[in-house]
Amino acid sequence: MANIDSVTLEVTDLSSARSFYDALDLGDRLQLRESDAPTSGFRGFHLSLVCSQPGDVNALFDAAVAAGATVLKPVAKSMWGHGGAVQAPDGTIWKIATSAKKDTAPVSRKADEIVLLIGADDVSASKKFYVAHGLTVGKSFGSYVDFKMGSSPIGFGLYKRAALAKDGGVAPEGSGSHRIAVNSDLGTFTDPDGFAWEPVRVSR
């Protein structure tokens, strides 16, 4: 089964970005590198931190805001669970959420899983592309596709671009670099929406 080892965010200020992400304690699942590639507006993706309980969501959300993130959607309860969204100082959108309704353990600032959701202009075409590159579809309905990633440190899915922007609390317009690369064992390629996949990176 395909494995995504980590994602690499391209940032303009490496020192500041490291300081911010150290507060979230994401370990080697997140890599950083400097880039001044032009980018504006919605970058076409967001990353989700999936927690095991609401208290952990609150702790991570508060840590992100204290470290300099901008609140896009305050933490709130919903039919599906508990969560909110922030934008990191480097521009990356992070959704922090859980499907659990209540705490069942001591609260910790821990994310059990990171999930990358890419906003696709044509979800069906992008799904076919990824299946041809070795990924296996787990769930697929309408504008959403979730791929089976096994024990991969990073989950992966597709969502209609406009719907993904709305879910993150931003306008769908955007241009330029996505400022992200996916580090996996699938080789080097670029998907139909311009997202780059690269070999696994060894260090941060």
TrEMBL record:
Segments forming domain Glyoxalase/fosfomycin resistance/dioxygenase: 35-95
Pfam families (alphabetical): Glyoxalase
Protein name listed in UniProt: VOC family protein
